[in-house]
Predict the structure.
Amino acid sequence: MSSSTISDMATNFQRFSVNCRSFFLLCKPRVSALIVFTAIIGMFLATPGMVPLNILLAATVGIALSSGAAAAFNCLIEQEIDARMARTRGRPLPTKQVTSSQTLVFATIVATTGLVILYFYVNPLTMWLTFGTFLGYAVIYTIFLKPATPLNIVIGGASGAMPPILGWAAVNNTVSPEALILFLIIFAWTPPHFWALALYRRGEYAKSGLPMLPVTHGEEFTRLQILYYTLILIAVTLIPAAMGMSGWIYLLGILALDARFLWYAINIHRNYSDDLAKRAFRFSIWYLTWLFAVLLVDHYFHFPI
Amino acid sequence: MQNLFNRLTFIAMALALCVVVLGAYVRLSNAGLGCPDWPGCYGHITVPHHQVAQQAFPDKPLEAPKAWKEMVHRYFAGTLAVLILTIFVTAWRGRGQLNTKPILPSVLLLLVMLQAALGMWTVTLLLKPVIVSLHLLGGMATLGVLTWLVSKRLPAAADISMRSWALLALVILVCQIALGGWTSSNYAALACPDFPMCQGAWAPHTDFFHGFRLIRELGQNADGSQLSLQALTAIHVMHRLGALFTFLYLGWFGSKLLKISGLAVWGRLLLGMLLVQIALGISNVVLSLPLAVAVAHNAGAAILLMTLVVINSKLNQG
């Protein structure tokens, strides 16, 4: 082999790696990771014993691929808005690391692969539910809901709340009340999570043209809504304990988490600062992670209330 | 209008303390089921005669002294509820002019209605420990909110650095009161007849799993089998451990208050009441739960709560 061939190969490999990374970023990996995490917990909560390894693997891969593809579609459709906002203008499409047609092909292949895996290696119910979630996010939310109303993320939160149901369906081939409670928890969590972000990024959202709540109804109103939805969230997170689904470990954990969340919500309402909203947003991500982790531990170390 | 509001809240606060202590007296003299129904007693507004009671509830014979204790508690509680309703109306009519926004009096009204329901369930659900404990906590909460409303008139002692510690102190005390309620409503106070050891050992046999199952009948496990001594011991031991923790934290917190102007006197009150409460608790065990000491222990908890509420209020004003 000549030295020029080797350096050609090296350059091609570098370009290939950069492109791979760009495609990976299109899938919004951090969001998808949390989504897959909640789905996996849903799988474990669905059975008293261990989740069959083939289901665990297939469902995780299938849900991860579908979630990534939905995120990629979202990036594709919103690329102009992304270009206008500081938070998102570094994404692969606005920075021209990938083209629109490349993204379309990529997202279609990934989505199809994910759904096919779910259909053949998990069960049809999980596939259809995942497909519905995919449409809900990529089409209904991104195309119709988001530009239409300040309640966009409240309703669109339903898509983000589906993963525990998907995980549960993967293991049990059914949708149970317990899974619906998990859906409700994430659904109630989504508004304070997103509106905290929208508050400290209100200038950018104003530029983007999207009807986010701080832009359409003002900051003070948004801060009050965050408080109200936090109260709803607290009430909903107590349901697993009240239902007997979870025990002491969950209850003590959730009381601590809810107290902290409430502290953030009250302070956002009373002594707002952009820094506080930013910290609240970051905390909300940890909050959800710890909530599901505590659900998992409680599932195996169950001290009934 | 502020004067009227001030007077109403102060009287209500004092009355709430009485209701809490009366409630403890009813529980500790085993009069909780003195009347088998609610809100009447054998269907009447006062304690009726034997024959009337027998006709109304033939399988629940009347014990007049117990019934009277129960009804006096209800009379005082009912009066408090009416007073709180008046406070609610006054707060709304005077909104903008008063030193308090109407939200807290509204919460208070909801709280007292919930308390009434809990009082009813205490009787109709036959002294289920979780209901009795919640009823105790509800009473304490009502007293706490009233104390907060009254303490708004006190001068502020704004010291931002102490606010979180003060809140933590309140949370710890409420947890310990909850443990105390759970101990009393499960009749676990005599599970350890000695102090500082329990049943002659430093580590007695305990069953926390069954002891802290909340949803079950009095004296039973969730499946209906009898609640074991080990479970009662676990409940009692938890209250003692909580007492130690509460004593250490509140002791530290109180001593820090001594150096802050405007809070020194409250810090002294906190430390004093803390010592009294510990002494009463130990006396309960060593003297085998004499009624007066047990009721005083409940009253001591209420006064400790009021003290911490005042401290928190002063720290959070201004």
Observations:
- Chain B has a mean pLDDT of 93.
- Residues 17 and 189 of chain B are 23 Å apart (CA to CA).
- Residues 64-93 of chain B form the longest helix (30 residues).
- DSSP finds ten helices and no strands in chain B.
